[in-house]
């Protein structure tokens, strides 16, 4: 008797061990109408954090090289667009704990405050101060006060992209639900 229970438990584990446990991969019950690409979902697990790291690099490298808050925000937004394309609106955009309008508002406040703070010190709007910090492994780093402005722009762009994806995704999802309800009605044509 115990052998059959352990065999059943082992078989159950074998059948379910390779199912995804993360919330940002689609589950079978939450499948959208567009075809699901397992290759895209799996490769996105590697690409998504890498693209976000490139976006943060662009944010910090923007003061001495090409980049900054706007281009870093666009690259981070592209990462979220890729995530949306791979998994649809069920990838966590609807259930995120920070809503996109809050990210937009916080980015706007940070950018506005960092632009106006120099006025209180008798400097023109958007003035920049540069500090040099010695970091043991990296050496001497220059930190500009305009990094706060670029961070605000970064958050603003990412919030706008997330809000756009959420809005478009909800519209597509509602359209799919309406078409399913129309197909299930007695007067509708169902296959």
Automatic annotation (TrEMBL):
It is a multi-pass membrane protein. Residues 40-162 form the Na+/H+ antiporter MnhB subunit-related protein domain. It is found in: Cell membrane. Pfam families: MnhB. It comes from the Bacteria. Keywords: Cell membrane, Membrane, Transmembrane, Transmembrane helix. The chain crosses the membrane at residues 38-60, 66-86, 98-123, 143-165. GO terms for cellular component: plasma membrane. Its main location: membrane. Belongs to the CPA3 antiporters (TC 2.A.63) subunit B family. This is Multisubunit Na+/H+ antiporter, MnhB subunit. It comes from Saccharomonospora xinjiangensis XJ-54.
């Amino acid at each position: 008797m115990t052998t059959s229970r352990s065999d059943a438990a082992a078989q159950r584990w074998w059948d379910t061990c390779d199912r995804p446990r993360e919330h940002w991969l689609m589950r079978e019950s939450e499948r959208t109408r567009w075809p699901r690409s397992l290759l895209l979902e799996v490769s996105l697990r590697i690409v998504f954090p890498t693209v976000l790291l490139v976006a943060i690099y662009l944010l910090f490298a923007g003061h001495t090289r090409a980049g900054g808050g706007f281009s870093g925000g666009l690259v981070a937004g592209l990462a979220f667009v890729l995530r949306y394309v791979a998994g649809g609106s069920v990838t966590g955009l609807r259930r995120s704990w920070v809503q996109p309008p809050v990210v937009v508002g916080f980015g706007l406040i940070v950018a506005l405050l960092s632009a106006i703070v120099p006025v209180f010190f008798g400097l023109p709007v958007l003035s920049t101060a540069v500090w040099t910090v010695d970091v043991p492994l990296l050496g001497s780093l220059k930190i500009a006060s305009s990094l706060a402005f670029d961070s605000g722009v970064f958050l603003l762009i990412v919030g706008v992209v997330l809000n756009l994806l959420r809005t478009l995704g909800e519209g597509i999802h509602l359209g799919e639900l309406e078409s399913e309800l129309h197909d299930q009605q007695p007067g509708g044509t169902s296959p």
